[in-house]
Amino acid sequence: MQPTPRIGRWEVGEDGEAKLIASHCRTCGETTFPERSFCPNCRSQDLEEARLAGPATLYSHTVVHQVPAGFSGPMAVGYVKFPGDVIVLGPIDGPPERLARGIPLAVREGTTSVDGDGTPFVTYRFTPVEVGSTRDA
Amino acid sequence: MRDAFVVGTGMIRFGRYPDLLLEDFAADVAREALEDSTADPRGLGIAVFGHSGGGRVAGQRVLRELSLTGMSILNVENACAGGGTALHVGWMAVASGLHDVALVVGMEKMQKGLIPSNPGEYEAALGKTLPAKYALRARKHMDEYGLTPEQLAMVSVKNHRAGALNELAHYQEEVSLEAVLASRMIAEPLTLLQCCPTTDGAAAVVIAGGNAVRRLSQQPVRIAASVITSGRYTNPAKGQLASDDDLATRAGQAAYEMASLGPSEIDVAEVHDAFTIGEILACESLGFCARGDGGRIAEEGVTALGGRLPVNPSGGRLSLGHPLGATGVAQVVELTRQLQGRSGARQVDGARIALAHVQGGSTPGIGTGASTVHILTA
Questions:
Q1: Is the pLDDT of residue B112 over 70?
Q2: I need a labelling partner for B158 at 20 to 30 A (CA). Which of A124, B280, B295, B375 fits?
Q3: What pLDDT digit, counting tens, does each position of A98-119 carry?
Q4: Active site residue B322
């Protein structure tokens, strides 16, 4: 049994929009996502939850054709920028040809892969706002 | 610190050896390097082995085949920089005066396909494969500097052309620009022929200092610089992507300072081209060209055999192959032989100063875990 990858936490609102939960350090002001048990910058344990607010935009991405076991491709993965210059890596929905730097993205819950037993790995995903929800959960 | 020299080299043809144990072919390169240096194995003070997947005490299992045991044996791991790390440890052992003779072996047996991620690695769980990491770096370069798919592909064409002349290369065939661009897409914009193959291999050097040097070699090659550095933690939630380029830049600058040399004095280099974009970024970070010009110098033939500064005359990772822990040592085997004038059809005329660079260990929050740079002088 492998430990579960610490991809971070999120909460899903009634509208289906997910909010990523970051750590904000009360001592030095550093924001970290995924969350930490202590601040990687100043090592303070005085942390509070902070929700990353939109609008998020696509910063850089690639379309992965050779995928690891359990994933299905082609799939887009990239960096997404939140206000306040926060960058988060994640899987990106939508037809690859529609993806371009700067397009607005919504955060949704979805899956990236399935394990050997067919159990899906649940995570957050980024979806182009114009395309609407193409979550594949 | 005193001067340390490469006094012996050994290397097998890189390829796939499903029927051989790691011990079998690694023992071959250790034997060859010791014979090349005429080193009396009894004078060996320390042996350092770089590998990522060799299992427990792999170095001892290799030297058992040569009845060479009882001295200090170290096994070191730093992913793609494991061989360079082993060299650095061997250099430290000799340059510090602790030992007069060190054996350094880089070795690896690879699985086919993608390199699996470390357990619990969250970027991999989100779909960022190792080729995707380099693809994102290529995309960034295209956005910022106008790097073209053709310039990227030219790195593969150039390195396969060199590899076709290297009897130790895994793939000894030239490839056309069209074939590189038309090969299967791995992670956009990187196609199959822009990604290193999965290759088994091993390489070894003997390093000596003090009175042992002249006794062991007619043509010792001086290690003018040996530098290892690690990637700096950068918080992506501060709008910073982990700065891989900074890693190679820092390693290069420290090496130039140690050797009292500059990039314009390098005659030949081996750099980390696990993916085509890797060579382009390394050339820029090591000061072979201005930032943003790495694609142009590949396209214009500056870094080809016969160019002003041949890069990856061995065929590089793309053609020679990239057995993780073996690579850093294989680069120094290639460059030592270049400086000794033993490289046949690939010989860089008049080469006197050479540079080897590896980096590896894709790590969330750090980017790349380790980089080593070695500068060798004839």
A1: yes
A2: B375
A3: 899 999 999 999 999 998 898 9
A4: yes
| Closest listed residue to residue B327, CA positions, set B295, B297, B371 | B371
List CB contacts (< 8 A) between A33 and chain B: 236-237
Q: Is A64 on the interface with B (CB under 8 A)?
A: yes
User: B79 to chain A, minimum CA–CA distance in Å?
Assistant: 19
B150 touches chain A (CB under 8 A): no
| Local structure of B73: helix, strand or coil | strand
Residue contact A62–B139, C-beta within 8 A? yes
Q: Which two tokens stand for residue A69?
A: 């076991």
Domains present along chain B, CATH in parentheses: 4-112+200-220 (3.40.47.10), 123-197+225-377 (3.40.47.10)
Chain B positions touching A8 (Cβ under 8 A) are: 122
B33 closest CA partner among B19, B48, B21, B17 = B48
**Nearest residue of chain B to residue A66 (CA atoms):** B186
Pick the closest to residue B141 from B100, B179, B182, B189 (CA basis): B189
Q: Which two tokens stand for residue A5?
A: 């990858």
Give the up-direction half-sphere exposure of residue B216: CA atoms within 13 A in the CB hemisphere.
31
